[in-house]
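FAQ: What does a multi-protein file look like?

Like this. Sequence, then tokens, then the next protein.
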Amino acid sequence: MSTLDVRTDLWDAPAPPRPTATAFDYDVAIVGLGYVGLPTALAYHAGGSRVIALDASSRRLRTIAARGADLIDSDRERLDTALRSPAAFRLTSDVTELSRAAAVVVCVPTPVDARQVPDLTALRAACATVVAAARPGQLVMLTSTTYVGCTRDLVERPLRERGMEVGVDVFVAFSAERIDPGNVGFAQEVVPRVVGGATAECEERGARLLARYADRVHRVSSLATAEMTKLLENTFRAVNIALANEFADICGALDVPVTEVIEAASTKPYGFMAFYPGPGVGGHCIPCDPHYLLWQLKALHVDAGVITEAMTRIAARPRRVVERIRDVLGRAGKGTLGARVLVVGVTYKPDVADLRESPALEIIDLLADLGAEVQYVDTHAPHIHLVSGRERDSLADPGAFHPDVVLVHTRHHDSDLGWLDADTVVVDGTYRSADIAGRVLL
């Protein structure tokens, strides 16, 4: 058994001796080891880079060291390999270690607050730390999705204020992450990366860094272009999901099967891309990223009516789900007060343990506010803490709850619905659970 298998304070271990033959001891440092940062660190290590993997949370570091992080199988294998080579993959919380890496990549969350205003707290802190630790010759790259001009404001300008000439002394680039948690169909190395730099030399160095693991790197002319590219990607998805949800409501009113319509439209080999309706949108991208653009445009008095309406509709979707559940209960002669509602799956997408922005959390709170007794079952989320302060544990025996109505919110591949009673009313929030007899759609 290696030392890494038994130590819980491995990130406080003495650093390996500094080699004298090279200017930097490590090729890249990853700041932030969440759903993006950890897979990114592992991809670089698998590509042959020497990696510093840094996170401020000792709990997160212990989870990673114990091999308990939520990862797809291929990344679990990469983590096991990385932890067995501490000289080339160093877990740490020591920010002074950043000066030992030729490149520093910032991968921290950029959420929005309850008013849909960008929360830059983590990003500002991370960038300030990286700028303070920067040394000549380093490349600093942001991957966190944010507003256009953020890399200039939080990295390039502060470095210049330190007296460093960007493009000569230090180098600055932006390349937004393109990780889809839980998606085994697209390995990181096969997804093209877009990069822009503060100068031509910054762009060149950023492209070379990404090429350490990515098969294809697409260069753009500026930091701002790279930042806007990511905003377009996720705003495009948000608008089309809002449209798919609207079509689901329209098809419901006209008694037309929406999924059959989408599948039929998908046979067209050009000009159409399938998006499916659901109970809402969660995760770290779609519910958040377009708000960074809208926030910036508001200050510039630029109208973005289509995007604004789409995000308004997305935000309202959980309430639409609750209204549908109330309608279903009413048709069964029951009110919401005292009704027993069971939610199947509370993570934001199948086969991940990620609860960020999950519509299920808001749906549970809204139903509880109306007096319903709400429980859930989810093998990937044994415990949840809601915005209201309520807490719930996943039911060990959901059948024993005897729900009046079941909402299928997220179906993991290991979801067992054998406990469903044939007489139980099931609201299918996925629109794709045709195997459940007697289901009704949102």
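And here is the next protein:
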Amino acid sequence: MPATPTISTPKTTGLLSAIVVVAALGYFVDIYDLILFSIVRVDSLNELGIMAKEAVTSQGLYLINMQMGGMLLGGILWGILGDKKGRLSVLFGSILIYSLANLANGFVQNIEQYAWLRLIAGIGLAGELGAGITLVSETLPKEKRGYGTMIVATVGVSGAMLAYWVGAEFGWRNAYFVGGGLGLALLALRVGVYESGMFEQTKKTDVERGNFLALFTNRTRLVRYAKCLLIGVPLWFVVGILITLAPEFGAALGITGPVTAGLGVFWCYFGLVFGDFASGTLSQLLRSRNRALQLFLVFCGVMVAVYLFAIPGASPTVFYVACFVLGISVGFWALFVTVAAEQFGTNLRATVATTAPNFARGSVVLLVPLFQAMRGPLGLIGSAAVLGAVSLLIAFWAVSTLPESFGKDLDYVEE
């Protein structure tokens, strides 16, 4: 449907404004809490009485699925609220929910308590990135949007490294307490942040806002939305399977020493810091979001192949170097969310920018059973190779057929 301009040109803000800083710190805490379970999975399950390796793997995947399932639900909830009530309401509400859930997570005594709290935390975690990217995209000049979202992502993904350090130094229960405390402390910084001018203008019109079903009632819009979702799947294949199950892959590859999921996550997310910086900068220099994404997807395919086939029998150091470079190769997360936000009008932008990353994260719910089903006939390595190849090829097709959004004027609504 044709785009309809809104009332007037909204004001913009600077690259290092309070909005960008608060969004970046919010994503930092979000990533800390999001990735913490992958880091403390083995220790926490062992303390709860689950000692057998197969049980640790299966119960760990169950808990990941609960967290990611919560993110699927939360993505829809916060996306709709972001377009109906405002971007700031999502930033406040989401961080409050996942902070309280993580504080409670430090007290769990059994798997069922753990699972329900990961579900609640997942619902809360779902709102942070999409609302932050939407707010930054709508308040920065269009020539600087890529740099703004790059800052949010680069600062944000480093939260995983803090999660590893806190988990290693203070234990898994205290790590959850710290995550919840950081989130509650961040709420105080949000008082001076103002709402998006584009959203405020759209509120003055009679245009319907936050109608999630509107994404499915128009074929062109639905295809565009589906392509946005598919671009982010390879990242969560890498993080949710290759890195979360680093101990299992280390054993299958014959790595000469012990491999831990915590260090795998640490080095992968350390790489993501550089990758998000590089992908955001590259999209600005090339003046093309799509070309930058294509280059990173090819790079990711090469590194998945290296991880699975080029390091059998290597030392743990080489394995962690592979995790680091693999992290760089999937450092297009904020660029992917930026593209999703830029593809849709103001009345659906928060809905898309919030649901797209969470549906991509939630793809782990589908990837895990597919991985498990193929693991029998193909083995651990073969199953991962097939799943990785398929997800990367589909993502490359999706980005190659999306309209270019670099420098696009976002001050319009979807009819």
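Q: Is there any per-entry metadata?
A: Some entries carry free-text notes. For the entry above: DSSP finds 18 helices and two strands in the chain.
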